[in-house]
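Exercise 7b. Backbone tokens:
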């Protein structure tokens, strides 16, 4: 009792010294731990000290012990709102303003108000009361924090619909942890002290499972520890005693990336654990200017940036043509030591990689130095949708790239330009062997010229993709027709970190002025490498003649699909 009296005295001193209202929150991990009960006990202590305290709204949930504590306290009558033909009661915030008490009790901070109320959420009502100089004591369960939404859903399989921004807790002047062991809470539940008898069994088997309660209790204790440490650091900073840290956190946002909300919540929790400032950063490229993106994308982006602010981030929008350079420029300027990004919304296709495309994540890994990069898997709930979209887009892109006249692989890759490597072979030797195969078709060109051109292209980004197939390629000045060679490494490429045996290597040389034809060949070979009919037979081929026969069948199948007569 002495501890609780000291807490009440501390809050009493804060009340008397402040002009703007102060906020005190009783934080718990679950319904039934005693938050409202403790809040009402404090109200009685404050009243005894002569403080003008009233009840703005308290939910007893038919708990007799809690209801008994309302006796002797002034209760502001609730306002009644008609919603879909049903009369619903809410806190009458205007009546509280008119009464203007020193302290008002407002239960269940995360509550969503009925449409037609002054504010959409109860925490917004509380903010209005604080601005009016009225002190507020409220209650909150930890699972209602916005940043914990994904954690609670993943660990407890529960979607929490009513949530509040983390900044509400951060800006509270006092936090009181109302704790109870999971065993004691389940005992209270079984005795009918939390829910009425008809709800006890379902609650025991679902949300009030021992494992769930222990998980929530741990989250609450961690949150309190984080809050205490954060406030301690704030006090040190106010006295110029806190060390300056370059380890600020930034989360990179995309207008099209999946699960942006999850990304923000993760960054918020990370910043909280590390006690760092954090930034939400969005690069607006020319392709994503307000005039270039549709209204839906603009709304999604606006909602995402609003959530970032609610979670406590400093939001920055930069314009830039190069996303990675803009991100790293910001990181240097704002002393960022930790960058959080999500997995790319769309995978770069094999064809895209072949023509030198890389993802933002890959470039950040390669170009950032001295920065910790966290890549969060944000694909979880969107993976199937993204796969459908990607498949459709791949089919569309192939249809656009490939002209109606199909490639003839049997002519493009004759038997004389097919080889096998039974022993392990490295990248350099494999490419050189294929160059030797194509040299008879490269009249007037030097072997070193071809070798240097292929090597230069590899420096821009490896075409050995560790996906079972490699496409070293380049465009060659002076070449009049495309030339392709093929090698099969039955034991894989020896100097790759991983490889899928047999490893197929296609060397593609195209005339410098035939970009469309070059892309067409890359696309056709890429499609061949993904075909479930062709690839098993290529793997089992014994000699170039068998591969040539397979190419003739492949050409015939494609011609039939496209209604193009095969060339004779």
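Sequence design result:
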């Amino acid at each position: 009792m002495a501890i609780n009296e000291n807490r009440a005295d501390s809050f009493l001193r804060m009340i008397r010294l402040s002009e703007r209202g102060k906020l005190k929150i009783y934080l718990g991990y679950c319904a039934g731990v005693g938050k409202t009960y403790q809040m009402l006990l404090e109200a009685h202590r404050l009243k005894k000290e002569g403080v003008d305290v009233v009840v703005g709204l308290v939910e007893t949930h038919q708990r007799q012990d809690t209801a008994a504590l309302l006796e002797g306290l002034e209760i502001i009558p609730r306002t009644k709102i008609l919603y879909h033909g049903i009369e619903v009661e809410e806190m009458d915030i205007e009546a509280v303003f008119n009464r203007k008490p020193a302290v008002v009790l407002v239960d269940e901070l995360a509550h969503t108000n009925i449409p037609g109320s002054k504010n959409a959420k109860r925490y917004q009502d509380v903010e209005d009361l604080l601005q009016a100089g009225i002190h507020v004591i409220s209650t909150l369960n930890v699972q209602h924090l916005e940043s914990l939404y994904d954690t609670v859903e993943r660990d407890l399989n529960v979607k929490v619909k009513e949530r509040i921004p983390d900044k509400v807790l951060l800006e509270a002047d006092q936090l009181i942890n109302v704790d109870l062991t999971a065993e004691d809470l389940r005992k209270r539940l079984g005795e009918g002290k939390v829910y009425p008898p008809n709800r006890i069994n379902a609650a025991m088997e679902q949300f009030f499972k021992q494992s769930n309660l222990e998980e929530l209790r741990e989250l609450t204790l961690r949150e309190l520890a984080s809050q205490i440490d954060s406030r301690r650091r704030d006090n040190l900073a106010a006295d110029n005693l806190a060390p300056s840290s370059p380890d600020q956190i930034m989360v990179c946002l995309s207008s099209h990336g999946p699960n942006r909300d999850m990304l923000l919540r993760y960054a918020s929790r990370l910043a909280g654990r590390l006690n760092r400032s954090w930034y939400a950063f969005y690069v607006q490229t020319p392709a994503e200017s307000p005039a270039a993106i549709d209204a839906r994308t603009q709304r999604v982006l606006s909602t995402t940036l609003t959530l970032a602010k609610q979670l406590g981030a400093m939001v920055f929008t930069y314009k830039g043509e190069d996303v990675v350079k803009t991100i790293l420029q910001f990181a240097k300027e704002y002393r960022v030591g930790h960058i959080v990004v999500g997995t790319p919304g769309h995978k770069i296709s094999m064809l895209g990689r072949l023509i030198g495309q890389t993802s933002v994540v890959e470039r950040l890994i390669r170009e950032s130095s001295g920065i910790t990069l966290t890549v969060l898997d944000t694909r979880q709930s969107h993976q199937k949708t993204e796969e459908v979209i990607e498949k459709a887009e791949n089919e569309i892109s192939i249809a656009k790239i490939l002209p109606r006249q199909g490639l003839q692989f049997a002519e493009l890759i004759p038997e004389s330009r097919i080889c096998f490597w039974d022993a392990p072979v490295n990248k350099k030797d494999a490419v050189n062997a294929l160059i030797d195969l194509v040299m008879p078709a490269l009249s007037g060109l030097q072997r070193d010229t071809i070798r240097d051109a292929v090597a230069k292209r590899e420096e821009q980004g490896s075409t050995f993709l560790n996906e079972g197939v490699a496409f070293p390629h380049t465009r060659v000045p002076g070449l009049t027709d495309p030339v392709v060679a093929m090698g099969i490494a039955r034991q894989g490429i020896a100097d790759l970190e991983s490889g899928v045996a047999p490893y197929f290597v296609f060397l593609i040389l195209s005339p410098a002025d035939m970009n469309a034809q070059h892309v067409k060949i890359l696309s056709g070979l890429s499609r061949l490498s993904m075909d479930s009919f062709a690839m098993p037979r290529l793997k089992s081929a014994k000699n170039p003649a068998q591969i040539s026969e397979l190419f003739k069948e492949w050409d015939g199948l494609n011609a039939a699909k496209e209604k193009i007569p095969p060339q004779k």
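Instructor comment: Residues 409-562 form a domain with the Mannitol-specific EII; Chain A fold (CATH 3.40.930.10). Residues 240-245, 381-405, 562-568 have pLDDT under 50 and may be disordered.
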